[in-house]
TrEMBL record:
SUPFAM superfamilies: NAD(P)-binding Rossmann-fold domains. PANTHER family: BIFUNCTIONAL POLYMYXIN RESISTANCE PROTEIN ARNA. Residues 4-220 form the NAD-dependent epimerase/dehydratase domain. InterPro entries: Epimerase_deHydtase, Lipid_A_modif_metabolic_enz, NAD(P)-bd_dom_sf. This is NAD-dependent epimerase/dehydratase domain-containing protein.
Amino acid sequence: MARVLVTGGSGFLGSLLITKLLEDGHAVTSIDRLPSRNSHPNLRAIVGDIRDRPLLDKLLTGSGHDVVFHCAALLAHGSIPPGELWSANVEGTRTLAAAVTTAGIRSLIYISSNCLWGRGFSRPVHEDDPPEPCEVYGASKWEGEKILADHAGDFTTTVLRSPTIMDEGRLGLLSILFEFIADGRRVWVVGDGSNRYQFIAARDLIAAMLLAWQRRTAGVFGIGSDDVGTMRDSYAYVIANAGSPSRIGSLPKAPTVLAMRVAHALRVSPLGPYHARMIASDFVFDTTRIKTELGWRPTLTNREMLLCAYRYYAANRSEIATRRGVSDHSRSADMGVIRILKWVS
């Protein structure tokens, strides 16, 4: 049994990771600004902020923690001021790294993002492609990577650059798509829907996190599914398997992107600059490095993941609508002006 710290332990990924760690017999300390959804004799769940250095020192110094899984991050959609997001994600990582160094913990696994880029690629994205974030969330994750690189002599850091994480219970912006399908409304792609945008199954990401810890492998790794089909094909697969009467329609790219930017500027849409730039683009990580160095393999395709998440939504829709005080990925996003599109679909 190892002693493990998970930041963001009340979030979507953090909760699933903690469940797996407890099943494997480890003792887990969780820190999050929200109460934990997990309960177990081997779990110590702390409601707190990773920017609180005295709290981190109290939790880590002399505690015998073997590894830190750093999953905590504020997201760009919603009403969070950019300055608060930057402080939580960047200064939180800086404070955590300093506390881990002082405590002598040997390993830290950091969940980064494909939001390090605000454009699509016509080829698989490699670890040595220079990041080009277009909004504060992506910039904050890139800054977090640089902070941890500065601690290379203090502990082993594994950075996993993750695309959208999928599993049962994944909601957030996806709940907008799911509501359209559940209500039999037309589902829209931008352009012809031939773009390929990679997902990662939560169980596959967690498997990579555990491999990185077990092997203490330092480095930066892109991660994601194999067999990344088009967005049109993925939507069609979910619609067919859900028995929904929804059909797929196409929106012209240039006017749609312009409308998204205007809606974001007016604060009437949950979709930000990143979504406007990527909604009809290709983005797929080259996963050669993580497969070679960690021996990792994905188990689910994009469309299988999306159907799994949809079925959870359909089965729990009424309860989901009442959720409060949970992470952004564990509740439905506010449609804002997108609801007008639903009315005419």
